[in-house]
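Exercise 3.2. Students should predict the tertiary structure of the chain below and write it as structure tokens, then compare their answer with the key that follows.

Predict this chain's 3D structure.
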Amino acid sequence: MTLWMIGNMAAHSVPSTLKRLLFAVKYSPLQSRCCAVQREAQYSTISIPSEKTFDKILIANRGEIACRVIKTCKKMGIQTVAVHSDVDSSAVHPGYGFLSENKEFAKRLAAEGVAFIGPDTHAIQAMGDKIESKLIAKAAKVNTIPGFDGVVKTAEEAVKIAQEIGYPVMIKASAGGGGKGMRIAWNDEETREGFRFSSQEAASSFGDDRLLIEKYIDNPRHIEIQVLADKHGNALWLNERECSIQRRNQKVVEEAPSTFLDPVTRRAMGEQAVQLAKAVQYSSAGTVEFLVDSKKNFYFLEMNTRLQVEHPITECITGLDLVEQMIRVAKGYQLQHTQDDIPINGWAIECRVYAEDPYKSFGLPSIGRLSQYQEPLDLDKVRVDSGIQEGSDISIYYDPMISKLITYGATRAEALGRMEDALDNYVIRGVTHNIPLLREIITHPRFVSGHISTNFLPEVYPDGFKGHQLEADAKRELLASAAVLYITAELRSAKVLGTQRVASTPVECSHWELCVELGEERQDVEISKSGTVYTVEMDGAKVEVWGALNLASPLLPLTINGTQRMLQCLSRDAAGVIVLQYLGTLFKVRVLSKLAAELNSYMPEKVSEDTSSILRSPMPGTVVAVSVKPGDTVAEGQEICVIEAMKMQNSLTAVKQAKVKSVHCKPGETVGEGDLLVELE
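Answer key:
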């Protein structure tokens, strides 16, 4: 029996993983196992019933992509088997890994007579090694970035090469991908540090610590071309994906097509991508990534020999099911289409929803259990690819992606509007997530105008992401909504807890005076109610609020001064504190009666912790190195320790010059967010 396997588990565990996978191939029952159902898709390819492909496919993968593959297999009448790691035995976690691009994995499968749905081992090896792939690209007359084409062996050699190329330079893992093992260096010291971290991350993520160095193209766009090739020499380019919105060299928001490319540049990039695919006799779906400068010069970056995370937006604008095409190619069928058949129909946008704190370096990992989870699938032309459900755990062992949220429209404006609504309607409780950042990105004037680059986030938020900055009208909307929610809760409590025991006509209060606090600001408000409409007065302005104020629902659809808004109430407490998600950002608002506000002024304030003398872990992870001991004197900016989370290493430094008082961690220990690591005097 011939089976398909597409893998994405940790590369360093290939030997033990292979044994379990091959055992599963031989002895697994003919049934499909998947812990969460892939959601509604946006593509229209119809399977050809007469085409015989495979009876059963073993999916060596996890999370959302495993569920995505299973969906197409079911459509094609193919039975599926899923496997899981020990960590996943009792819960589902989203994420991608690197077995799909591991040549040893593909070789072992071939030796066992198992079909691998993907390119052959030659193409995986050639394109998986960044040094070899660059040489092949040059030979295939594909534009490449200037740089050193060999392996960099030491930090000092890296400095010498960087000086010869000219700063800035990019230090990259030869076997890398997904932003792992990549550092930008602007001087000799950053090159030494980048060499150390990149080699460590590369060894941890790929089992291969080889590095290369090339010229860093400042302020570029990251645009990739989707290719599809069969075993008969046919190859197509399926248009581009704009992937410039990134943090730590990892994509956050993608769209197809790009606002930047004209038809001539699009065709040139597509043709070079196909040239490269043919040069390595590629057969399957793959992606050729380019950096594009402001003058539309483009340079080969790398080729990913697998299904990309962002493949759904290509499916939306072309109507092709890429998983189905991969299965057909693996079985030996020719491509169904020619280049002239490939359309650009409409616009698609994808947001990667992560369990991350966007206020820390645009997204440091968060862990926890999804106590409440509701995808916005009731909205039109919204697709959610996920592998989790309410109750799932997000752990430190895998990439923290919760889902891929995709919207589609006839125009870019329509797709963006749908994405804004989808983000507002997405309910995620139990973990910190990056929806506040995603919503700010897609509504920012620079993004809306298409004026973007890979430096978008640090340029737009030079001091870090701070959430939505409220203007006067928006602030009044928020305060009015919180006050109305408070009154709604008070009225409900009066009905539930009322003491009237004889029939009478209740006299309901219709006017209130309250004090609303947001941060350090305090605002007196007056509220009146007429029917279902609340009128809130503050600072001489009036705000009218009405809508479905169901306190049991996570979503609060309100109409505020004639504008429809979707708010979320995350919590309310007896002290009047209400946490609302408004315009994507969480705001903590306190609503008090006038008397309570007066009495509250006499309460002592909590003294804030002196964070300059302590170092706490900004994320859950593993301590890789501790560079100090008690009694050492550290300078401002000096490295104190290194924390690894989701295969990314993060150097934690001193914020001032001081003597080390005590060290509370050691290499190999697992730490949680906020755990005390080091104390300074």
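Discussion points: The chain has a mean pLDDT of 86. The first strand starts at residue 56 and ends at 59.
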